[in-house]
Amino acid sequence: SQKIEQNSEALNIQEGKTATLTCNYTNYSPAYLQWYRQDPGRGPVFLLLIRENEKEKRKERLKVTFDTTLKQSLFHITASQPADSATYLCALDFSGGYNKLIFGAGTRLAVHP
Amino acid sequence: NAGVTQTPKFQVLKTGQSMTLQCAQDMNHNSMYWYRQDPGMGLRLIYYSASEGTTDKGEVPNGYNVSRLNKREFSLRLESAAPSQTSVYFCASSHTSGGYSSYNEQFFGPGTRLTVL
Question: Is some CB atom of chain B closer than 8 A to the CB atom of A30?
Answer without folding.
Answer: no
